[in-house]
Specification:
The chain has 241 residues and is mainly α. 68% of the residues lie in helices and 9% in strands. It is globular. This is Protein ABA DEFICIENT 4, chloroplastic.
Length: 241
């Protein structure tokens, strides 16, 4: 018995360097497994038999005979963060419906003011007659109105405009339709075009019949029907003298 124990102990001592070398190799292999990872195109892959998966994180799994298996979780911030940043930049360049409606309302109002100004300040000037006879503002306002109308159009627009059984407009339907900012902006552009056209007609009629029109033109900017009424009264009073 003592002899066999001595022989077994001598065999272990003889093979001890080899066992230490194997253990050292396994430790290095485990270290490499823990530091290297392979990811596939869809965000998952394999690493020495261990799965690397997940859209939000990656798992690096290493395994050996000595230390067992180990897992390290690493957040996946590359592709997802870049796509989120790209979508945020794209969204910032696309105007919202509120921005489109607000810009159309403001620039449409500013565009018609020079025509009213010249008809009020210098009604007899040749330059005023030329710009008042121009069709450019009506073309621009017409295109802008058509654009806003397309943006504000919905499948139920026709039903809201002709809600009664006789295909006539009703106040509740019109009120619901104009609850949209885009619809309000298109209606404002519509009013600007009609008011400017009426003011131009009053202006030229005053020049032809030698009738004062500045007060009527001003009223057309604020309330077109009252401006037309004022011109009719002024013309009737002037020609009756």
């Amino acid at each position: 018995m003592a002899l066999s124990c001595c022989l077994f102990s001598s065999q272990i001592d003889r093979h001890r360097p080899r066992l230490q070398s194997i253990a050292s190799c396994n430790k290095r292999t485990s270290s490499i497994c823990l530091t290297l990872g392979v990811a596939s195109k869809n965000g998952s892959g394999r690493l020495f038999g261990g799965a690397v998966a997940g859209k939000e994180e990656k798992q690096l799994i290493g395994w050996n005979f000595v230390g067992g298996s180990r897992t390290i979780t690493i957040p996946n911030l590359g592709r997802d963060s870049c796509s989120r940043k790209g979508s945020a930049v794209y969204a910032s360049w696309v105007p919202s419906a509120h921005q489109i409606a607000s810009s159309a309302f403001t620039w449409g109002t500013v565009a018609v003011l020079p025509f009213y100004t010249f008809m009020l300040v210098a009604p007899q000037a040749e330059f005023t007659k030329k710009i008042a006879a121009s069709s450019v503002p009506y073309v621009v306002l017409g295109v802008l109105y058509a654009y806003l109308l397309c943006l504000s159009w919905t499948p139920e627009t026709i039903h809201l405009m002709f809600a009664s059984k006789y295909w006539l407009p009703e106040l509740p339907g019109i009120a619901k339709m104009f609850s949209s900012e885009m619809t309000l902006a298109s209606a404002w552009i519509h009013l600007l075009a009609i008011d400017l056209f009426a003011a131009r007609q009053i202006y030229f009629d005053g020049l032809q019949n030698d009738v004062e029109t500045r007060h009527s033109v001003s009223l057309c900017l604020l309330s077109c029907p009252i401006g037309i009424l004022a011109h009719v009264i002024t013309k009737a009073v002037t020609t009756s003298r």
